[in-house]
Amino acid sequence: MTLTDSLNSIYTLILSPIPANYKIFFDLLLYTLIIVLYAMFIWKFYRLLSKRDLIKLNLNQYNTTEHPFFSKFLAAVFFLLEYIIILPFLVFFWFVVLSAFILVLSKAQGIDHILVVAVAIIAATRMASYYSEDLSKDLAKMIPFTLLGIFLIDPDFFSVSELIDKVLEIPNLLNHIFMFLVFVLVLEVIMRAIYTVTDFFSSSSEESKVREETGA
Fold first, then answer.
1. Is 210 exposed, middle or buried (CB count within 10 Å of its CB: 0-12, 13-18, 19+)?
2. How confident is the model at residue 188 (pLDDT cuts 50, 70, 90)?
3. Would you tell me which of 50, 68, 89, 200 could form a disulfide with 136, CB atoms 3.0–4.6 Å apart?
4. pLDDT range class, residue 126, cuts 50, 70, 90
């Protein structure tokens, strides 16, 4: 007996004392909980992922140089290091959880397609955050909730046996996730580097103008 058959047997055993007319309510409760958990995750997901500056570790406090140029240079280096070291863990968590939810909610999509959808949502949200955090917020919540609506109108959505099969496929996500994770991380590092360099030179230019005005 496979694990799927065992879980289906347990599910049938749990439902056996319940009258046939009321078994649908158990399924409704199960899917209601899944939808609520998905909505709660998206709510936290879009609020965090849409921020341009995800990390607030303030490693700059260890920057002790007194020269303004080197202070800014070291601050920029520390800021990039924060993203290179810590961001992978944040992205990995979001990627795995979002992919798992989409896998459970979808019916016909394969794992590769689900990972492409998940990484596209995360990558687009992160890119948009460097242009406008409001746009990033809309992307981070609109697309996942739209996907939820599409899945819900599927006539075969309320199928517990298929739900069990999908849940058992979640570990397979980890076998395909690495290259997608690298894509998001490389994209984030490039965007952060461009933003940091631009901010570095713009702040230096503003400081020069202030010195000139003060000297004048």
1. exposed
2. confident
3. 50
4. confident
What domain range includes position 71? 3-215
Mean pLDDT score, 9-17: 71
Quick check: 86 and 55 in contact, CB under 8 A?
yes
Residue 32 scores a pLDDT above 80: yes
Q: Which two tokens stand for residue 123?
A: 């990558």
* Cα→Cα distances 155→22, 101, 108, 158, Å: 20, 18, 12, 8
In this prediction, residue 210 has a pLDDT band, given cuts at 50, 70 and 90, of: very low
> What pLDDT score does 212 carry?
55
Burial of residue 100, with CB atoms counted within 10 A of its CB: 0-12 exposed, 13-18 middle, 19 or more buried: buried
pLDDT of residue 53: 77
**Residue 79 Ramachandran class (φ > 0 left, ψ -120 to 50 alpha, else beta):** alpha
How far is 140 from 201, CA to CA, in rounded Å? 30
How many structural domains comprise the chain? Answer: 1
What's the distance, Cα to Cα, between the start and end of the chain in Å? 86
Residue with tokens 């580097």: 193
Cα dist. 198→13, 70, 140, 166, 210 in Å? 63, 16, 25, 45, 18
